[in-house]
Amino acid sequence: MKILYYSPHPNLNNADDTGYATHINEMISAFEDLGHKVLPLIMGGREKRNVQEIQTSFFKKILKKIIHRYIWESLKDINLRKFDIYAKSKLIEKVKKFAPDIIYERANYFQSSGVEVAKQFKIKHILEVNSPYVEERINLQGKSFFLKKAQKIEKKILLNTDRILVVSSSLKDYFLKKYHLNEKKIFVTPNAININKIKIDENLKLNLIKKYNLENKIVIGFVGSFFKWHGIDLLINAFKVLNNKYENIKLLIVGDGDIFEELKELSSNNKNIIFTGSIKHKNIFSYIDLMNISVMAKTNWYGSPVKIFEYGIMEKAIIAPNEIPLKDVMTNKKDGLLIESDVKSLTDAIEFYIENKNLMKDFALSFKNKIIKHRQWINNVEIALKTF
């Protein structure tokens, strides 16, 4: 089949070193691996950007401080709708030249061009939905004048597509209840991993073991961006409790973000808490390989965290939140430990692993095998195209 992969958002560039770029590229590759011809239309660009292109300009930062947030967010929505009109014209051009059998769209907030073009040209349309866009928009950025219109657009694209792929069963239930959709056209496809792209730099590993004094230590780790909702503070507080009891443990926190200094201060200069700073994604598995226990302390109710599959494929014992997206892919006390997001639960879970090393290995191997069998990107593509 001929598949037009469409990402309409102006800022999502598939050359970026980010999770969304990995998702876009891996889905395109998986379509191609199954023998389909794919034409990507990535409106955010496909060429690697420099730092200045990605960061908000100084002028915009000043304006953002001066203009009321409500108005600022409304202006952003206006620009996004204008861009969607432009994106629609580009999509029509590609459709006329490529004549696809399917438009596969990575859905985004306040954009409806993909569904509209598919209807106009009577082409099958698949919509990949990674979050409750309107609700997420409010929580992360704030409200605007156009939220009611945004909800209408969200409903429109969900009702008019031929197939919906959501990353969790909780997100599926949310949309079913909110928009009374046809359940038969919604499929749960959690995030995944490409096991063929895992590379370990043994020299880097040896240097890191020496640099951070990790030899013969039990290493507890986190990999990711530093945001409040990731619960890194819970992990630090749990570690400080355990470090009073176990002298041979280290906490390796890999990444960077908005609350870096806040977390450093919380660590109280504990020499056993290590902050690596930002690293290149190509080195991520070399860092994970240093860990014995990998932690994700908190998550939202709807997303499918890629780091869980990165931990899992490296055969690491996992501690993760007892939320539906995790229960979609893991079984508690078989593939890992699913816990409540509080310091005591996290402390108890880490100690359980320290005291039960055989179970730690059993859980890690169980989840690794599950990933190999069910959580590769090609599995998602097969679901997306089933019966098409």
Key descriptive features of the protein:
Rossmann fold, 12 strands, alpha/beta, 388 residues, six-stranded parallel beta sheet, 2 domains, single chain
Structure at a glance:
47% of the residues lie in helices and 15% in strands.
Describe the structure.
By secondary structure, the protein is an alpha/beta fold. The chain has two domains: 187 residues, Rossmann fold (3-Layer(aba) Sandwich); 179 residues, Rossmann fold, CATH 3.40.50.2000. It is 47% helix and 15% strand. The chain has 17 helices and twelve strands. Helix 8 links the parallel strand 5 and strand 6. Helix 1 packs across helix 17 and helix 10 packs across helix 15. The mean pLDDT is 94.
CATH superfamily caption of the largest domain: Glycogen Phosphorylase B
Helical percent range? 40-55%
Q: Roughly what fraction of the amino acids lie in strands?
A: 5-15%
Order of helices and strands: EHEHHHEHEHHEHEHEHEHEHEHEHEHHH
Write the layout of secondary structure elements.
Elements: E1 2-7, H1 19-33, E2 37-42, H2 51-54, H3 58-66, H4 69-98, E3 102-106, H5 113-120, E4 124-129, H6 133-140, H7 147-160, E5 163-166, H8 169-179, E6 186-188, H9 202-211, E7 218-223, H10 232-243, E8 249-254, H11 260-266, E9 273-277, H12 284-288, E10 293-295, H13 306-313, E11 317-321, H14 324-327, E12 337-339, H15 343-355, H16 357-374, H17 377-384
Helix pairs in contact: 1-17, 4-5, 10-15
